[in-house]
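User: Structure please.
Assistant: Input sequence and predicted structure:
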Amino acid sequence: LVLVLVALHWRSLRPSTATTTLTPSAPPGCPYVWNGGAPSDAPVGSCWCGQDNYCMCTPSLAIDLVIESTLPNGEPAVVLVERADNGLFATMGGFVDVGETVETAVARELMEETGLELASPPSLLGVWSDPRRDKRRHTVSAVFVAPGKGKIRAGDDARGVKALPLDQLMGLHYAFDHDSIISDYLEWRTKPEHQGPRGGGYRTDGPSSWGGPRARNASSMYRPSWRPGKENTGVGGGGLSA
């Protein structure tokens, strides 16, 4: 009897060899009512619900910065990021974190991507908002101008960071629509109100001195091919700089 009880106890400790088939249950339906935009399989923006349960999809908010610098010979320059994924040049930029201002995002991304700090408060150059500027999602970028200070150090997602003279900027291959950012920056510099460096940085009112910040609905807005009433062709996709 003792041997029988021991055998039964030993068999109860052995793992079962029987197979169990699990039938996946259907995912629960979306419990939210979306009041703007529409969730879909395509990453069209940033979808969120507030504490009041009001839900909507909006464009993703990003920042870009035209970093002003000076070469050893005293010639003005702009610091550009050479992307690690495709080798193209881009202005420094990235997405704004929840809970931070665009100015805070500029300072944070500047340090992360280049190792530099802001030498003066950034000036708003314009807002780039063409829905076609990013194939992954609708991204709106607030573009600033500011001088940087410190020692250049490339971030993990950059192949390199280079300070280039102004006369070399338009001959480069840029990622996304950053060629239009640089073009508008160079145009801004030609305005009579732009008086160059003073006190370690450029005028803090920036483009507002010649008509205020511009809302950019298409990157081709100030190219010769654009005319009032003519449909803007926009730019090919890609995303903003990380």
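DSSP finds three helices and eleven strands in the chain.
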